[in-house]
Write a structure and sequence with these properties.
- The chain contains four helices and five strands, in the order H-E-E-H-E-H-E-E-H.
- With about 130 residues, the chain is of the alpha+beta class.
- The chain has a single domain, classed as Cytidine Deaminase, domain 2.
- Helix content is about 30%, strand content about 25%.
């Protein structure tokens, strides 16, 4: 599983549009039904309009129907491991379980494995909304 996730995240990273930062990110999500969804970052000259790789992959997954994430691979140009930013930890937590596995890969292909729970221990979730 993690080799396939890595390969597809790496392929997505190579398609990234990052002419300003030159920081390419690729993501591959494995849904609970076994399907894979990948995405890359797409920069914009107006930085606030940049789309993160996680956004593309998550949107693809939701559009196809599966709504639970089993595993995630993130590949970046960084020397260190690059986790999702705080905003995307929150967004991903909507579709992940505490034991959802994240495989973070640096540019050398080294891997770090971490759970959603360890990555984002206190997400805001539906329990805070009461009867809405």
């Amino acid at each position: 599983m993690e080799k396939q996730l890595y390969q597809w995240a790496l392929e997505a990273q190579q398609k990234a549009y990052a002419p300003y930062s030159h920081f390419r990110v690729g993501v591959c999500l494995q849904a609970s039904n076994g399907e894979y969804f990948s995405g890359c970052n797409i920069e914009n000259a107006s930085y606030g309009l940049t789309l993160c790789a996680e956004a593309i992959a998550l949107g693809c997954m939701v559009m196809q129907g599966p709504h639970r994430i089993q595993a995630v691979a993130i590949v970046s140009d960084a020397d260190d491991f690059c986790p999702p930013c705080g905003g995307y930890r929150q967004r991903l937590s909507e579709f992940a379980n505490p034991d959802t596995v994240f495989f973070l890969f640096n540019q050398a292909g080294q891997q770090k494995k971490i759970s959603m729970q360890a990555l984002f221990p206190f997400p805001f979730n539906k329990n805070f909304l009461g009867d809405v």
